[in-house]
């Protein structure tokens, strides 16, 4: 009696497709599909990671992570790849798949016929091949690291994607340099400094901040430049990175980058992989024998004093431990609402964030307002919007849900890795250093995924509210921090002075605009 055919997933990957013509991927696809037909397996989905490394543990492979999540929910029970190193070059990842083959019956085969995890010989071959590949990678990495450090010690500009404000050849791009200077100035000013989130919104064009103009997302700009350069060389252009909103983490990267102060740095692999690279950048500034920082052979955009001042602000323990993105405030709109007074000298709206006062809100020299009435008016407006029948459909984009679910599934997988390693350690199968290595790698990945989840902001903040039977009630009952985040995600609130001679609260003195 014949059993039902296996449901198979095909995984295709190439580390670097320089021409981006997809031909290398298609060659893998053809061989894998032929093997599936030979074995009479049903192909449920093909996962493709083009120009994605399997050697770098910190590299994100979107379709690989999606495949892992799909396997955990039982979408397939077999994997076909062209060669084992297309699937992974990490021994720990390989062991996870071997566990799946031995304990859960996963069939994993390669189109070149070299590996079959259903046999002990195939598993032995896979482990040897992964170990050899890892050793080769480590030797190559050591050579590259030595060359990169030597380059940095000479003060030469690092290779890779150009940062905002600098051209590929290291020269300053005046228009972008103005934006970089504005970001540093607005973040470090004494009165009403801007936050990472507000700066990201201004760069995205969803919020106006005087002195800071909106820009296309930097990765989009660079991809357009690279496509144009390839076209000039007579090569087919690569896909353009989609434009979109700036994220607070990108702004943080700009503020943390020593290159803007012409400071030469070298980032060793261990620092890149711990998830705190940007906080460690100061320690990675190279110094000469006298202890002085090595200067880069490029023009600086930000002076030393400003750069170090920004680092002190970012290193402030009260700020660093604030993982929610909102400060501990006593009032709903403190640092959130903005002043709508028109400045007589310039004729422009003030736009500064109001601060908390004993009984409400204030913008020095412009307005002092009682807080409870304004907060209740804003709360009513948010509650009304959340009470709409199709609030979830209008506020949350469909793709937000699927992307967040995929992230949640991958996070669960990483936590499961930690649990398995802890179990193996308890059973004396692995040693303490192996447990630490697995835990550190998994926690690093979880941190990256949680950061991605947090950066989805709107969906991440609103889903717990909109997912209840009574969204308005859930909003009112939520903590001050959550209510502030919901308001920040949905609307922009501008406060004007209370009209003279009018008693009681005037709704016209508060403007609420949907984002």
What is the 3D form? globular
Q: Strand percentage, roughly?
A: 5-15%
* Estimated helix fraction: 40-55%
Tally of helical segments:
19
Poorly predicted ranges: 273-279, 320-327
Please state the structural category: alpha/beta
Q: Quaternary arrangement of the chains shown?
A: single chain
Overall average pLDDT: 79
What's the topology here?
Elements: E1 7-14, H1 23-39, E2 42-50, H2 62-72, E3 78-81, H3 84-87, H4 91-104, E4 107-110, H5 120-153, H6 174-188, H7 196-204, H8 218-232, H9 248-256, H10 269-272, H11 304-315, H12 317-320, E5 338-339, E6 355-356, E7 360-363, E8 367-370, H13 371-386, H14 391-395, H15 398-426, H16 432-455, H17 458-466, H18 471-477, H19 480-490, E9 491-495, E10 510-514
Parallel strand pairs: 1-2, 1-3, 3-4, 5-9
Antiparallel strand pairs: 6-7, 7-8, 9-10
Helix pairs in contact: 2-15, 4-5, 6-11, 7-9, 13-18, 15-16
Features:
single chain; 515 residues; alpha/beta; four-stranded parallel sheet; three-stranded mixed sheet
Structure notes:
InterPro entries: DNA_bind_recomb_sf, DNA_bind_recombinase_dom, Resolv_N, Resolvase-like_N_sf, SSR_resolvase. This protein has 515 residues and is α/β, with parallel strands linked by helices. The protein contains 19 helices and 10 strands. The protein has helices spanning 23-39, 62-72, 84-87, 91-104, 120-153, 174-188, 196-204, 218-232, 248-256, 269-272, 304-315, 317-320, 371-386, 391-395, 398-426, 432-455, 458-466, 471-477, 480-490, and strands at residues 7-14, 42-50, 78-81, 107-110, 338-339, 355-356, 360-363, 367-370, 491-495, 510-514. It has a 4-stranded parallel β-sheet with strand order 2-1-3-4, with helices on both faces. The chain has a 3-stranded mixed β-sheet with strand order 5-9-10. A hairpin with a 3-residue loop joins strand 7 and strand 8. Helix 6 (174-188) packs across helix 11. The termini are far apart.
């Amino acid at each position: 009696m014949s059993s039902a055919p296996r449901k198979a997933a095909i995984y295709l990957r190439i580390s670097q497709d320089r021409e981006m013509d997809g031909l290398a991927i298609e060659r893998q696809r053809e061989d894998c599909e032929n093997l599936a037909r030979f074995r009479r397996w049903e192909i449920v989905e093909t996962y493709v990671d083009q120009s994605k490394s399997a050697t770098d543990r910190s590299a994100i492979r979107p379709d690989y992570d999606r495949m892992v999540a799909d396997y955990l929910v039982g979408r397939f029970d077999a994997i076909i790849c062209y060669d084992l190193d297309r699937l992974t070059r990490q021994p720990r990842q390989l062991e996870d798949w071997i566990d799946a083959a031995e304990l859960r019956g996963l069939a994993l085969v390669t189109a070149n016929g070299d590996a079959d995890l259903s046999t002990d010989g195939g598993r032995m071959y896979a482990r040897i091949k992964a170990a050899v590949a890892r050793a080769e990678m480590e030797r190559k990495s050591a050579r590259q690291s030595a060359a990169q450090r030597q380059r940095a010690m000479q003060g030469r500009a690092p290779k890779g994607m150009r940062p905002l404000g600098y051209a590929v050849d290291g020269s300053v791009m005046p228009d972008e340099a103005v934006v970089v200077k504005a970001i540093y100035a607005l973040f470090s000013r004494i009165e009403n400094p801007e936050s990472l989130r507000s700066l990201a919104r201004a760069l995205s064009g969803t919020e106006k901040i005087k002195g800071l103009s909106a820009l296309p997302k930097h990765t989009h700009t660079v991809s357009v430049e690279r496509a144009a350069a390839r076209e000039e060389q007579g090569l087919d252009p690569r896909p353009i990175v989609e434009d979109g909103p700036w994220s607070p983490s990108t702004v943080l990267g700009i503020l943390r980058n020593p290159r803007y102060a012409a400071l030469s740095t070298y980032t060793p692999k261990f620092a890149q992989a711990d998830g705190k690279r940007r906080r460690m950048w100061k320690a990675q500034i190279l110094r000469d024998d006298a202890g002085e920082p090595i200067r880069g052979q490029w023009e600086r955009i930000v002076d030393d004093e400003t750069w170090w001042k920004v680092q002190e602000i970012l290193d402030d323990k009260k700020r660093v431990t604030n993982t929610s993105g909102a400060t501990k405030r006593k009032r709903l709109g403190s640092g959130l609402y903005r002043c709508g007074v028109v400045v007589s000298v310039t004729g422009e709206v003030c736009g500064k964030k109001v601060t908390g006062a004993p009984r409400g809100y204030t913008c020095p020299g412009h307005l002092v307002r009682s807080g409870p009435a304004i907060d209740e008016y804003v709360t009513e407006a948010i509650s009304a919007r959340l009470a709409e029948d199709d609030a979830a459909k209008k506020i949350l984009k469909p793709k937000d849900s699927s992307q967040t679910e995929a992230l949640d599934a991958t996070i669960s997988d990483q936590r499961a890795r930690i649990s398995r390693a802890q179990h193996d350690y308890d059973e004396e199968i692995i040693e303490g250093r192996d447990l630490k290595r697995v835990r550190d790698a998994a926690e690093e990945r979880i941190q990256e995924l949680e950061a991605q989840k947090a950066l989805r902001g709107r969906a991440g903040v609103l889903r717990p509210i909109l997912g209840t039977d009574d969204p308005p009630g859930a909003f009112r009952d939520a903590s001050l921090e959550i209510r502030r985040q919901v308001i920040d995600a949905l609307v922009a609130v501008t406060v004007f002075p209370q009209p003279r001679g009018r008693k009681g609260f005037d709704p016209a003195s508060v403007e609420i605009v949907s984002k």
